[in-house]
Amino acid sequence: MQKFDFTGRVAIVTGGGGGIGRAASLALADNGAKVVVVDLSDEAGTVTVNLIQENGGEALFVKADVTSEEDIKAYVEKTISKYGKIDIFLNNAGWEGKIVPLVDYPTEVFDKLMAINVRGVYLGLKYVLPHMIEQKGGAIVNTSSGAGLAATPSMVAYGASKHAVLGMTKTAAFEAAPHGVRVNAVCPGVVNTAMMRSIESGFGQGDPAAAEATRKQFAATAPDGRYAEPEEIANLMMYLVSDLSSHVIGQEILIDGGAMLT
Q1: Residue 229 CB coordination number (10 Å)
Q2: Which of helix, strand or coil describes residue 162?
Q3: How far, in Å, CA of 242 to CA of 253, rounded?
Q4: CA–CA distance from 232 to each of 16, 155, 169 (Å)?
């Protein structure tokens, strides 16, 4: 892990209980930040906090449903109450939904996914940004996806939501930059996480052999022939919230091993 200096900084990570969110939470703490881990799962969020504390870092777990405006207000208020500020916000929580063609996609699943992936990101920005603007500084990274840059057959809601995240990123970046706050987005391709296991299973219609074939097919789309590890996405996030990226504003940065080159 590249070393950054986040000593004295306070970070919030939504979806911090696993995958990219856990890797990013650990990276922030390892580089000196105090981390507020936000997740819907008590167990997963607590595991992340315990890992941070075992490594000598400082962390707080806040359970939240990112579709709930009250829960989002609460994780922001608890952070301010505990630490007095928010320097870094990884607006990362998300859900993959179902793997079915658009015409068969259940409307209730579409609505649920948009509430998590779009409403959750919007509300996070709405309630974190005022604190960063008031303190005249801060860095935000929204988690979009390669699916926010291209067509996503059989994943209409997920693709639509990740395109929306990029639209919000640009608007937030434009409005926040005059106040010393930077907003950017990462667009991961396939990443070795539980979410990808679910997606592979969905494309494989629950058959383990078909899911494994899907995994190999996805990996083969990248010139380097593999999935990213969560820590690699976290490395990019660390750069984007560090002083090294001080003039990077409103960008959507793809990290997919070159898959979209073809």
Answers
A1: 14
A2: helix
A3: 15
A4: 16, 24, 21
Cβ distance 37 to 25 under 8 Å?
yes
Tokens of 59: 């962390």
Q: How many CB atoms lie within 10 A of CB 82?
A: 13
Instruction: Return d(Cα 143, Cα 131) in angstroms, integer.
Output: 20
Q: Which of 122, 127, 158, 227 is catalytic?
A: 158
Q: What pLDDT, on a 0 to 100 scale, did the predictor assign at position 247?
A: 98
Task: Give the whole-angstrom CA distance, residue 39 versus residue 69.
Answer: 14
CA atoms within 13 A on the CB side of 204: 19
pLDDT number for residue 2: 54
Torsional sign, CA 151, 209, 189, 15: positive
Query: Mean pLDDT across the stretch 169-198?
Result: 96
Map out the domains of the chain as residue ranges: 10-189+228-255
Is 227 an annotated catalytic residue? no
For the sheet with 252-255, list strands across it. 59-63, 34-39, 10-14, 88-91, 138-143, 181-188, 252-255
Q: What is the rounded distance in angstroms from the CA atom of residue 241 to the CA atom of residue 86? A: 12
pLDDT, tens digit, 9 for 90 and up, residues 19-60: 999 999 999 999 999 999 999 999 999 999 999 999 999 999
Beta bridge partner(s), residue 143: 186
The fold adopted by the segment(s) 10-189+228-255 is Rossmann fold (3.40.50)
Q: What is the DSSP letter of 192?
A: S
Confidence bin at 111 (pLDDT 50/70/90) = very high
